[in-house]
Predict the structure.
Amino acid sequence: MTIHDARTRYWRANLRLVAVCLVIWFTVSFGFGILLVEPLNRIQIFGFDLGFWFAQQGSILCFVVLIFYYAWRMNHLDREHGVDED
Amino acid sequence: MELKTLTYLVVGASFLVYIGIAVWSRAATTGDFYVAGKHVHPIANGMATAADWMSAASFISMAGLIAFLGYDGSVYLMGWTGGYVLLALLLAPYLRKFGKFTVPEFIGERYESRLARIVAVICLIFISFTYVAGQMRGVGIVFSRFLEVPIGVGLVVGMGIVFIYAVLGGMKGVTYTQIAQYCVLIFAYTVPAVFIALQLTGMPIPQLAFGSIVEGESIYLLQKLNQVVTELGFPEYTSGNKSKLDVFCITAALMVGTAGLPHVIVRFFTVPKVRDARLSAGWALLFISLLYLTAPAVGSMARLNLTQMIQTGAVGEPAGNLAYAERPDWFRTWEATGLLEFDDLNGDGRIQYYNDQNAEFARQASGYGWNGNELNVDPDIIVLANPEIARLPQWVIALVAAGGIAAALSTAAGLLLVISASVSHDLLKGVFVPNISERRELLAGRVSAAVAIGIAGFLGYYPPAFVAQVVAFAFGLAAASLFPVILLGIFSSRINKQGAIAGMLTGLAFTYGYIEFFKGLFLPWAGAPWSENVAENWLFGISPEGIGAVGMCLNFVVAIVVSRMTPPPSAKVRELVEHIRYPREAI
């Protein structure tokens, strides 16, 4: 396997991971917080209508988790494909 | 001790800390001045990014906007945080690998074009000055209200402080000052929120109090708020008024704009490694979320407190409204600033605060002898007046003043630095005087920072519009001009300079033109709007705040189509695109 092949595989794996993360990003904010807000508001959790909660707090919590997950997975991919910085 | 003295002490102490840090961390090289020598730890950079990012708009205006917009205010919450996901996944690691000093520098090298670099500098300066004007207005409000000095004096003091640490310390000084400013602002934001949450719900964590039961009653905070506001003819707090498409577009414009803001991007140039850039974005958003998860709670609690303070009894009972003569002290002090206005339309000496735009409720209200809404509250005062409304101790009020100033100054300094770097590094060294020595470039950087501070002060004295409104436009412009060409430059090796330049100019011209058409020029004396700013006149019902999302799509389409019709970029560019994709060099 050449360096070129290894690098192509690394880049494809990165793009797949980015795509998955962006789908989640879109779903929790534009999906749950905006497009589906009325149906979700029929569900009550504690004092919140669920759609309203996603729009004002839930989506932000998901974003934080998402970035740390991406950073952790990418560090793993870097090492696996031999492109890490050390 | 008197409130004013206390405020002087707290604000003065915070200024001493900032100046101390500036002296300790002077910049010696251009590397220090532009990117803090690339030695900043990812957690430290995350904290500095959070302060850089959270401006007077986040600290002073946002909770107030949410308080009056309810669900529609979510556009700011999602929009100003979601961009970090784009930044961490699509831009930060690759720009860090590119490893230079400025955003226009990347655009210039990736598209092999001085013209593209100059266009990027123009976009950057335009965006940054729009944004910095909002910060300076924030500094002015805090000074004039809490220190009771004229706005001009407040501005000069604020400019002086920024001058000391930005001009001396460059990015290095700004980074460490921003860390201190983050601590000040997050403490100042959280403390009153904790007190108010305790008073209203008995739950000390404001982020959770948002969903708790109101103290002494058996109803959740948000349900209670819905009930209280609908009784006065306002729409339900938890449901929206704006069209879905508009909410969608504003959120998208703010998110993409966040990822395209040069002063945020450049913070990721300061960390040692690519993996630090990814992680640092996570830390930045974590620190930001401490404020952003609190803001909606603060907004809802403030709205409830304010409404109940005025509507003290049953709606329609003559004695149910607060008598103007019995208004609290904070009411008087804010009236003096003109940001809170009362007009006794029905001459009964009591304050009626309700939605007179709601025709059905207005009819009902005239039955009570009400003659229109009598109270105008500027959303900008909610956070600043909150501790007084909740009758908190004076040191909390002084702390909030210091926090507001910290938020405004930290963002202003970050913006002024990218402006000065784009002048000294991109225009002077990059285009006009390529063989300038490092010492003279550093001097040029300092001089342009000083000039930029002067212009910012001027814009703060003649503010173009309200803080959050002005800032919202900076995002639309960033989304429509810079973000698409940076993204395409990283992920495609086919986009060439013709495409990039055409795309940037289209996005900028379209977005600016649309805003101009409905809002008039940014400077109030320069020109009036061309058309009334109402939903019927908008393109597809998209407001000027959300139009950046459309401008961004136009930029993408034009950049791709023009690139397809013109020759592909050189082999050198294809190598550069390869190079930035992998953290380690090819052997």
About this structure: The radius of gyration of chain A is 18 Å. Chain A has a mean pLDDT of 88. The longest helix of chain A spans residues 3-35. Chain A touches chain B through 43 residues (CB under 8 Å).
